[in-house]
Design brief:
Layout (H helix, E strand, L loop, with lengths): L1 E5 L5 H13 L4 E5 L4 H8 L2 E2 L15 H8 L5 H14 L9 H14 L3 H22 L8 H16 L6 H13 L8 H8 L3 H11 L5 H19 L4 H7 L5 H12 L3 H14 L2
Helix pairs in contact: 1-6, 4-5, 4-6, 12-13
Length: 283
């Protein structure tokens, strides 16, 4: 089977061929052509186009083409799900999706600059995604500091930090105010927007954020804020779930329900019933 997409790939257009060749079609032929030739060549070569506006295999909602491949081919694999979040964050410049997204983006920006042959770049990229998948499947809980000497050095480092702990940098206060302002809107702030507003490198902000915000990544912290706001609406208003989803920045009710259940263990409607029953029982 032939698959065709735009030339000069970086992240998604390397990740999707990797996924195709490793999980969907091991004998697949990947073709890269200039943007304006993709659809014409697809017909001519009987190839399936991907990562292009208006074709089936492309971005949808806040997901990228890699996500669509997983959905379309029903690939259920925790390792692939972990990789998908990293690829989505790197490919859409929303680094809050996964802390590794900034690193993946940096790697492929550098490789794309150094390697001008698309198939040579794909060959290197296949090895990178093989390694990333092995980590995501088997080693994601493993840390570099597991060796005894490294642990000892880390203990010394943490002791030093504890003794000479510095105050939180000024940008943390500004960011808290920025996020709090969003509480009155629909919580649409992204890490990229925050870094632009604060004039801070997004990779630095992504790395440092958890130190000052409840040990959570930017994305997890914003999701927590959204769910906290949703809980307030569920407990104090009779707004329908679709409206609460909109007011708390979720793309639709199903997305809201999925994230709410993941965070609280209950779906929103059940949570509301339990909350109301609890209030009646205390009267």
């Amino acid at each position: 089977m032939k698959w065709i997409t735009r030339e000069r790939p970086k992240i998604d257009r390397i990740a999707c061929p990797w996924l195709i060749k490793r999980f969907i079609d091991t004998d697949a032929e990947i073709i890269y052509v200039p943007f304006e030739q993709v659809l014409l060549k697809a017909k001519e070569l009987d190839a399936i186009p991907f990562d292009l506006p208006g074709v089936e295999y492309s971005h949808y909602d806040d997901q990228c083409t890699f996500d669509y491949f997983l959905k379309k081919h029903k690939l259920k694999d925790e390792g692939l799900d972990r990789i998908a979040a990293i690829i989505r964050g790197a490919d859409t410049d929303r680094l809050e999706f996964a802390p590794q997204a900034a690193g993946l983006s940096a790697i492929f920006l550098g490789l794309s600059h150094n390697i001008h042959n698309d198939h040579e770049l794909l060959e290197v990229g296949m090895k990178i995604y093989d390694g990333l998948y092995t980590w995501a499947k088997h080693l994601f809980n493993q840390k570099h500091t597991q060796a005894p000497v490294e642990k000892l050095l880390l203990d010394v480092y943490h002791k030093y930090l504890k003794e000479g702990k510095k105050k939180a940098p000024a940008w943390t206060r500004e960011l808290r105010e920025m996020i709090q302002d969003q509480m009155d809107t629909n919580m649409s702030i992204s890490l990229r927007q925050a870094s632009d507003e604060l004039e801070i490198n997004p990779a630095y902000l992504s790395r440092e954020f958890s130190k000052y915000f409840d040990n959570l990544s930017f994305g997890d912290y914003i999701r927590k804020m959204r769910i906290d706001k949703a809980i307030s609406f569920l407990e104090t208003t009779s707004y329908p779930l679709t409206e609460i989803a909109y007011l708390t920045g979720f793309s639709d009710q199903s997305h809201f329900t999925r994230i709410f259940k993941k965070q609280t263990g209950e779906n929103p409607s059940a949570y509301r019933k339990i909350s109301r029953k609890g209030k009646k029982d205390t009267k």
